[in-house]
Amino acid sequence: MAGNMSSSFAPITSSLSKLQSLNGLFAIYKKQGPTSAELLNTFKEALLKEAGVQNPNPRKRKKQSLKLGHGGTLDSAASGVLVVGVGYGTKKLSTMLAGSKKYVAVGELGKATDTLDATGKVILEKDFEHITRQDFEEKLKSFTGDIMQVPPLYSALKKDGQRLSVLLKKGHKVEAKPARPVTVYNLTLQEFKPPFFTLDVECGGGFYVRSLVDDLGKALSSCAHVKNLVRTKQGQFTLEEHALHEEQWTLEHVLHSLQPCTESEQGTKPSDQHNVNRTQANNMT
Questions:
Q1: Is 117 in the active site?
Q2: Which residues contact 69 (CB under 8 A, 6 or more apart)?
Q3: Which of 45, 109, 224, 242 has the most CB within a 10 Å radius?
Q4: What is the pTM of this model?
Q5: pLDDT digits (tens, 9 = 90+) for 160-184
């Protein structure tokens, strides 16, 4: 009987050991609704349950049975590629994701919101009938290259250790962060059917698509906000080829998708791990 009990627990121990031995990067699909952190916790819980862990608590920080992190936070209302680091891979997030990111953004002219996207309340309405496709494409030129951008008030950037978005929801007065340099590699108008328009955006780290759309509306003597946002690429990971959807959140799929790394390849010093969260906050949309 003891032998049977031992053999029945062997697959669970084996699966958990495999999970805990993983080191590298891969990508999952983030749907609209949850925050990036919430989605990562759900993903982690699914893997631990598959490995036979009873009542896993993915939010538990101490004595973690599985070390995961994400790089490049997506807004709750946004969807698309979310890159995940496991084991030593968590320390590669800041360096591996320093490359370009690609987005498809649908904007709406004539309405501005307090969050700069469709989740907020409308705070301004202006005419947009005067705007032509030619006007729009001409304005895009001034938002391409190395530019200065003011981050949104509703963001994961922090003041006194708290996110600006949280402070605003608590009723605190928050001042805008100063403009900072960002890079836009490519910016293309794919569709123009006023009041709606679709942009293809390729940018560097720290760039906010919501701020871009808001600034575009103002530059066109109107206003605008983001209706829908999808990240289609982050670093070398693309939505089409690499992002694991929820039905693929299994050890087998992770093993197949993993880009492994070793401790010597992690690219950051141990002390740099404290900066990963800061990197995540700076890669908002």
A1: no
A2: 40, 84, 85, 89, 90, 93, 276, 280
A3: 224
A4: 0.83
A5: 555 555 545 555 566 666 799 999 9
